[in-house]
Amino acid sequence: MEFALLGWPAADPTLRLDYRRFSYAGKFVTGGTGVAVIRGDTTERATATAEAEAADKSGDAEDETESLASLPDGVDEADFADGILAAISFSPDRTDSSVLKIRYLTVRDDRRGGGRQLGPKLVAFLTSRAAAAGYDRIAIAVNNAFSYHALYKAGFTYTDRESGLAELVLDRPISEPAVASQSGYQNGLDVFRGRTGLSTAETEFLTDHVDAEPPSLVSNFRQS
Prior knowledge:
With about 220 residues, the protein is α+β, with helices and mostly antiparallel strands. The protein is built from 6 helices and 7 strands; from the N terminus they run ββααββαβαββαα. The chain has one domain: Aminopeptidase. Strands 1-2-3-4-5-7-6 form a 7-stranded mixed β-sheet. β6 and β7 form a beta hairpin. α4 runs antiparallel to α5.
């Protein structure tokens, strides 16, 4: 995999993602934020191409195509950025310019879970680059227990604050991971446990993580 910083907010980078595969795809074409991505490496892309060709010969490609909604007239597959596995957008916090605020984090639908940890790895990569840009802290607000858990893997901890959208705010110093405790980790999970309308998967996750310790950290990444 290749980790790449496409630009800081001042450079106003944009990225056109396939909205059928990425949540929040539209947020990456409006500009006004920085963008970083994970791309599949050359080997992975070649493998994907070979698998697609094999699927085409066997007839499986039709099933894959049918699983995605049809594109509207005037929009083609080639219009979307190629080989992107995950993307993140960010900009300075509106009340404290020393804090870098993650706005949106999205992972391609077929690369979520499975132990890949692409989300926290991309956050760790961005954090490793933020010190040189003059930031002291990095923060994010999340609206589900899965994202909350994933951010702990990138060295974030719960701040005991919620945003106006009832999202839990997590942050960490740029220079080193925050010090995570079981009680702090569970405090955030308890907020989600107290909410209604949770999915079955989220309810099961919260039950499975009663009294659990915070997850282990992923490694830092320093690439282009």
